[in-house]
């Protein structure tokens, strides 16, 4: 009985080998799906969901549309966004007043609605899109940068204000 069982196992093993070779053969003769980077590149990356980027202001393309409301940083489940607002000097008249009171004749300074620093850690991002969906100013979008490579983890921590130039870096 054991000899018959051994023959049956050998036939079954050969059958699974034939089935496996059939699958391999059909995939071998099909058209390629994989792009062999860097020899070839994908032409259309418009639907690619890459790292986030800041949107330019419609009034001034040298400024981001971001109003530094901190919604993106607070809603991010992996805390990969860090936003720092511009700090303001306190008024002299307001230094000795209690919270909630207003001093007559005091000039209230307009709160700046622009970030001084906006960093994004792509290594921690799960590309959930909560920051893009919940931004009240619609200042964040997914980029279509699909060709990112680096030797160090820190190469994927992006300063999103960098594309707007160094002239914004005066205060902070």
Secondary structure category: alpha+beta
Helix content: 10-25%
* Distinct helical segment count: 3
**What's the CATH architecture name of the domain at 52-88 and 109-168?**
2-Layer Sandwich
% residues in beta strands: 5-15%
Radius of gyration: 29 Å
Overall body shape: elongated
Walk me through the structure.
With about 170 residues, the chain is of the alpha+beta class. The protein has a domain at about 50-90 and about 110-170: Alpha-Beta Plaits (2-Layer Sandwich). It has helices spanning about 1-30, 70-75, 130-135; strands at about 50-55, 80-85, 115-120, 140, 155-160. The chain is elongated, with a radius of gyration of 29 Å.
Quick summary:
The protein has 172 residues and is of the alpha+beta class.
Labels describing this entry:
172 residues, alpha+beta, Alpha-Beta Plaits, three-stranded antiparallel β-sheet, two-stranded antiparallel sheet, 22% helix, elongated
């Amino acid at each position: 009985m054991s000899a018959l069982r051994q023959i049956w196992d050998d036939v079954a093993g050969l059958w699974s080998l034939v089935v496996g070779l059939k699958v391999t053969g059909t995939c071998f003769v099909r058209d390629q799906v994989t792009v062999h980077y860097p020899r070839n590149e994908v032409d259309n990356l418009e639907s690619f969901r890459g790292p986030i980027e800041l949107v330019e202001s419609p009034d001034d393309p040298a400024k981001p549309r971001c109003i530094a409301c901190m919604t993106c940083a607070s809603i991010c489940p992996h805390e990969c966004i860090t936003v720092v607002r511009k700090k303001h000097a306190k008024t002299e008249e307001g230094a000795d007043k209690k919270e909630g009171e207003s001093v007559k004749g005091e000039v209230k300074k307009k709160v700046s609605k622009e970030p001084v620093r906006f960093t994004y850690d792509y290594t921690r991002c799960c590309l959930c899109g909560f920051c893009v969906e919940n931004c009240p100013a619609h200042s964040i979008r997914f980029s279509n940068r699909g060709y990112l490579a680096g030797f160090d983890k820190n190469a994927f921590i992006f300063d999103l204000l960098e594309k707007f130039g160094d002239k914004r870096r005066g205060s902070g």
